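Listing S7. Sequence submitted for prediction.
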Amino acid sequence: MTKRRISTPSPTSQADLSRRKFLGTSGLALGGLALGPALLAACSSDSSGGDASSGDNELWFDNWTLYIDKPEGELYGKGGTLDSFQKASGQKIKYTEGINDNNEYFAKIQPLLSQDKPIGPDIIALTFWMAGRLTTLGWVEKLPLDKIPNSANLIESLTKPPSDPTGEYSLPWQAGMAGIAYNKSVTGRALNSVDDLFDPAFKGKIGMLLEMRDTIGLIAMSLGIDLATPTFEKFQPAFDKLKEGVDSGQIRQFTGNDYVDDLEQGSFAACIGWSGDVVQLSASNPDIGFSIPESGGTLWFDTMQIPVGASNVEGAAEWMNYVYDPVNAAKITAEVQYISPVQGVQEELRKMGGDAAALADSQLIFPDASTLATLQSWGNLDEEEEALFDAEFAKITGA
């Protein structure tokens, strides 16, 4: 579990022009292309305090930072998805950005859910592997799928991933890639290799993610290690390389979603980052870049779940149905610039015209076969192997 201080940007911070993250290990079809199990083994601020929602007519969604459209920078801005949903449904929605890291969030909600106590939010959107853990523990409700007919619009392979093989406990929010994020005003050049993160020229200015599967995954791939069949013994060289980076002072810090501030401010010359965040940052700061390493990147997805004890299950279903309409999903994609799980979004972006239409041709949002061929996702870890990986990673990161 992460113990280090992590500052989550507020909903109106300057980081609002960026977005959020993922990881993956399951059979996934993106952009009309099928990705088999070998490629994908699955692919808040005021939350988790045990507070109940303020009423049955209010829906509470706790999500990652910068993961929804915000017209004019305002979270509930006119014409945005939150505003339009409230008008269409007649119910209020409380939207918070309390997820910064999967393990950190788990540590926050575990004391309550383990005692069958509600955590407050009606919907949370953790990464697929953590969502699978919550399902196994019995901490999430079965979804009222009969009230979410638009789930028929989802990319088929995301509806019953290995993390939720019956498809009854989770539905996808967004998907994305992990790769190298860099600030050219500090690096002086684009970075395209994991080895660049260990270049002594950037000593003390490199960031790594607290998401073990992203950080260790990219390092492992750079060493020629296949992510589809992970074992602790096979991945030991990747842990060794990470530890060398920490011991030498090459790595400045391990972060959650808050790496975007360090990157933009230049505290990080480069770091492991998530595609959608960096695409959005680069829109206002051309020095910010993102690359899939020559050795490959990781692919993942975050997924919506209803925690046990949620007070507005009906509202949660209505929300899920609303955002799975391709027109509504396209508005979210135009802002967050991650891979949408909804079929038809590419066409809707083209209809929107302007900057939104240009996104329809982005390889980071609608990856083609050649881009997908550079990506890998983690195979499943059994409980014993998971414990070994987590312990070793925590020892290195100081978490």
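Caption to Listing S7: primary sequence and predicted structure tokens for the chain studied. The CA atoms of residues 55 and 234 lie 51 Å apart. DSSP finds 14 helices and twelve strands in the chain.
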